């Protein structure tokens, strides 16, 4: 059974990378095979899917549709156009803007909020939005590790180590993940400036867009506040972030129906939910849950512990770079959830403070997703947006930005974490 699962898993990811237009079908087909063959018991299918992520994506997509309809993204695009001299700085500015938001909001939600701004700018300049959206996605993934509420992996770490929001800034009296990530962001931003050095199309100021409704913007700001607040409340449901996003979306469409009497806006918002992306993620959760069920991830973890022995530096190095490699192909949420207790066991065996190992795991797992277009939910969401706009994103289009960005960011975080916490 384990061999069958491994073969199906490898085949699935080869197909996902080579047939980008059919990713949802491939993921759902493999998920179905896993259940039919009994690799993942049918009784565990529902709990294997991360409904918090699914609900968050669905609710945020709907909210963002209302946000776009209000013309606020267009106004932000006008503002950025007015403040940047050329397209290179516009792309970098948007990625930095996305990074700031992503430190406090889920990566996927960030991409869904910022991508419309990039799309609007690119449409006005009549250029491809593909590089901009990819840059926004990878920057969002990077900053997701900065705070407790920035990414699901951070939420998992915080729960495992009983960390609060401020522990991500200072932990055990030392600069924590937030500052490590910011230095990594500076280094990776320099890389983006170099990658887009030839994008010198002038960006000219135009007449400012008039926002028709500020209520969707208020809802998005409220979402940020509620997501942060929820992180401080103990014993909340596992789907609390998703519930917040869906409830705010429902408030938005109810207001549009009852107050504004705008049925078309509601129809557009429901249509804009990317059901293909939701199916892709659901399928991937089941597939990875299947290989976890048969013990593949645990076997690999045990193998590198056996190789490293009790050498902390070797163990740390293996954890970081193995996590980068695995997260390039496996959703980092399930991988992180699986590896956290494994890291605890490793720490107990080799002795000392295991913080450096835990932080190494988060850095590798969170940033490693930027290596491939299917390595992180934010990447999948960004590519889904481009696909709906009629743009085909090839794997090489993504990796040309994602690979150098990832290597710079991970290397910086790898070095800093070791010197601060080892």
Automatic annotation (TrEMBL):
Keywords: Cell membrane, Membrane, Transmembrane, Transmembrane helix, Transport
Subcellular location per the Swiss-Prot or TrEMBL entry: Cell membrane
One Gene Ontology term, aspect cellular component: plasma membrane
UniProt domain Citrate transporter-like: residue ranges: 13-364
Spans traversing the lipid bilayer: 26-42, 49-68, 88-121, 133-157, 177-196, 217-234, 240-258, 278-297, 303-326, 357-386, 398-421
Pfam families on file: CitMHS (PF03600)
GO MF annotation terms: arsenite transmembrane transporter activity
Protein topology in the membrane: Multi-pass membrane protein
InterPro entries the UniProt entry points to: Arsenical_pump_ArsB, Cit_transptr-like_dom, Diverse_Ion_Transporter
Superkingdom of this protein's organism: Bacteria
Family: Belongs to the CitM (TC 2.A.11) transporter family.
The protein's name in its UniProt record: Na+/H+ antiporter NhaD
Organism: Proteiniclasticum ruminis
């Amino acid at each position: 059974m384990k061999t069958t699962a491994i073969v199906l898993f490898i085949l699935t990811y080869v197909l996902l990378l080579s047939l980008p237009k059919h990713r949802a079908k491939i993921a759902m087909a493999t998920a179905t095979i896993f259940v039919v063959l009994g690799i993942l018991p049918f009784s565990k299918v529902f709990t294997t899917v991360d409904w918090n992520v699914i609900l968050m994506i669905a609710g945020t997509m709907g909210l963002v549709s209302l946000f776009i309809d209000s013309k606020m993204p267009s106004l932000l695009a006008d503002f950025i156009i007015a403040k940047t001299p050329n397209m290179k700085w516009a792309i970098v500015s948007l990625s930095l803007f996305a990074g700031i938001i992503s430190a406090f909001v889920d990566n996927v939600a960030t991409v869904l909020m910022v991508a419309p701004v990039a799309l609007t700018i690119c449409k006005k300049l009549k250029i491809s939005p593909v590089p901009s959206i990819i840059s926004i996605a990878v920057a969002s993934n990077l900053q997701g590790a900065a705070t407790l509420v920035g990414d699901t992996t951070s939420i998992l770490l915080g729960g495992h180590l009983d960390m609060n929001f401020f522990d991500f800034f200072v932990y055990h009296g030392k600069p924590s993940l937030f500052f490590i990530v910011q230095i990594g962001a500076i280094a990776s931003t320099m890389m983006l400036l170099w990658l887009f050095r030839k994008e010198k199309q002038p960006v000219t100021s135009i007449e400012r867009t008039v926002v028709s409704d500020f209520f969707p913007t208020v809802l998005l700001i409220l979402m940020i506040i509620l997501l942060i607040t929820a992180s401080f409340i103990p014993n909340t449901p596992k789907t609390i972030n998703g519930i917040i996003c869906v409830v705010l979306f429902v408030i938005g469409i109810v207001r549009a129906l009852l107050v504004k009497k705008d049925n078309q806006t509601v129809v557009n918002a429901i249509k804009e939910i990317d059901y293909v992306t939701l199916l892709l993620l659901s399928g991937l959760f089941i597939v990875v849950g299947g290989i976890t069920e048969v013990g593949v991830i645990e076997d690999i973890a045990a193998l590198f512990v056996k190789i490293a022995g009790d050498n902390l530096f070797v163990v740390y190095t293996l954890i970081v770079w193995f996590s980068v490699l695995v997260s390039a192909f496996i959703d980092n949420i399930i991988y992180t959830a699986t590896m956290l207790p494994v890291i605890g066991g490793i720490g107990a065996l080799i002795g000392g403070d295991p913080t450096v190992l835990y932080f190494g795991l988060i850095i590798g797992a969170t940033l490693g997703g930027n290596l491939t277009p299917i390595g992180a939910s934010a990447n999948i969401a960004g590519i889904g947006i481009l696909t709906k706009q009629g743009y085909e994103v090839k794997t090489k289009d993504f990796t040309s930005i994602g690979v150098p960005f990832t290597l710079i960011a991970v290397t910086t975080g790898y070095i800093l974490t070791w010197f601060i916490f080892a």
